[in-house]
Design goal:
The chain has 178 residues and is α/β, with parallel strands linked by helices. It is 35% helix and 21% strand.
């Protein structure tokens, strides 16, 4: 699960345990730097077992999938504690299999879709700026700007994990607020 800003958000929200899961070690290192209490390289271990071990067999209350990869989305359900919720925020054509009896009914788990974070930009953007100014939201570490003619490099860096959020600058003369 690519996390980036989610570590800061978890810490800001008062989460006592924030587990970052990825297949790229440099992103896991960044996750720790940004507030993850634990990290798991899902290329090396069974994610569900690792989360169970980290939570004393309980599972997590919240999981967020940003990949849209079927196995990752399904694992985000499996790692939930009873009553837990997973949010899928990736736009994907992939599908998941859900055990509606055990997962949704017996264990009272929830799956929610998220579009734009259910935020109110007029309220949430100033709050994020305040968190950034207080040193609690270090989003610049997850972003890198690329000129538009570097689009292939931006894509390659995103795929490799070198850059979490590549930002393409189309008009280099544009200055915000002008």
């Amino acid at each position: 699960m690519r996390w980036g800003w989610l570590h800061d958000a978890g810490r800001i929200s008062g989460c006592t345990k924030v587990i970052g899961i990825d297949i790229v070690d440099s992103r896991l290192d960044l996750a720790k730097e940004l507030g993850a209490t634990d990290v798991i390289n899902s290329k090396d271990v069974d994610v569900v077992k690792a989360v169970q071990d980290l939570t004393g067999g309980r599972g997590v209350d919240w999981a967020v999938d940003t990949t849209g990869v079927t196995s990752v989305m399904e694992n985000s359900i499996k790692v939930l504690a009873q009553g837990g919720t997973t949010a899928t925020i990736a736009v994907t054509a992939h599908h998941i299999d859900v055990d509606t009896w055990n997962d949704l009914c017996v264990d009272d788990k929830k799956i929610v879709g998220v579009n734009m974070g259910d935020s109110i930009p007029q309220i949430d953007i100033p709050r994020l700026i305040d968190f950034y100014k207080m040193g609690m939201f270090d989003f610049p570490k997850t972003e890198k700007f690329y000129k538009f003619d570097q689009i292939n490099e931006a894509n390659a860096d995103s795929r490799s994990g070198k850059t979490i959020k590549p930002i393409l600058v189309i008009d280099e003369d544009y200055k915000p607020g002008e």
